[in-house]
Task: inverse folding
């Protein structure tokens, strides 16, 4: 993927690692569009980084996605790079039985898996007309080694991992398909998790280093250690993750 001169759309780009990626990519002379569902967070991001172009969009809503794409086309801001980053991570108690809120599960599934699939489907014809098109799907080490308390999030990331591989095989060299595995980052979504976390600035630096190196599968920072432990000793990887990542039950959005 080329590092500069792109038009890049980042979902969930107003906060957390989405904003960290936006900040890093702006410094490489890219035009960066971010979308998020909370206008106040978009306003804060715009105040901090005036060069970002903001769109209020709930990617889980088909109508909102359509409005986003219509606005991008109308303003002649068609991206050649899409970064699917928006996500929800919530805890679930699966041991009780009979109490699982399926509406809540469906909402998580829509944001974490179906929305990226839908955005790729809708934007792909437009992106193919641009130079150097690429899709970056932000999955998670939790999609490979699941964290027990966030089973729906991890299952969605596992599904996105598989989908990304299929997408790459079908598209061949037409569109570059990249999968990004972030480490634990000190963001609001990760507040309830008792585990070592890196700062968003450190994540942004590590992210750009890996983009420079290139590759289809980018394990950022400490996440690469889990990759190798899981490959050699998967049982140990699962024990390490679930012993260290203690999460309080939370409905954090």
Result:
């Amino acid at each position: 993927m080329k590092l500069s001169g792109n038009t890049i759309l980042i979902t969930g780009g107003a906060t957390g690692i989405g904003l960290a990626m936006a900040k890093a990519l702006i410094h490489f002379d890219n035009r960066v569009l971010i979308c998020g569902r909370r206008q106040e967070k978009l306003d804060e991001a715009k105040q901090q980084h005036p060069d970002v172009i903001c769109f209020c969009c709930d990617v889980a809503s088909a109508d909102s996605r359509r409005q986003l794409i219509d606005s991008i086309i109308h303003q002649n801001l068609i991206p050649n790079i899409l970064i699917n980053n928006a996500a929800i991570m919530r805890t679930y108690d699966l041991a009780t039985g009979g109490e699982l809120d399926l509406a809540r599960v469906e909402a998580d599934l829509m944001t974490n898996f179906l929305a990226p699939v839908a955005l790729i489907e809708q934007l792909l014809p437009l992106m193919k007309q641009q130079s150097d098109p690429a899709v970056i799907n932000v999955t998670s080490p939790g999609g490979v080694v699941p964290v027990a308390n966030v089973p729906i999030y991890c299952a969605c990331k596992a599904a996105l991992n598989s989908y990304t591989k299929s997408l790459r095989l079908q598209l061949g060299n037409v569109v570059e398909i990249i999968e990004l595995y972030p480490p634990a980052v000190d963001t609001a979504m990760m507040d309830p998790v008792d585990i070592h976390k890196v700062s968003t600035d450190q994540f942004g630096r590590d992210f750009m280093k890996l983009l420079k190196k290139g590759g289809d599968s980018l394990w950022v920072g400490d996440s690469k250690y889990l990759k190798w432990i899981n490959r050699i000793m998967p049982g140990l990887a699962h024990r390490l993750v679930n012993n260290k990542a203690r999460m309080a039950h939370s409905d954090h959005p």
Summary: Residues 74 and 209 are 34 Å apart (CA to CA). The radius of gyration is 18 Å.
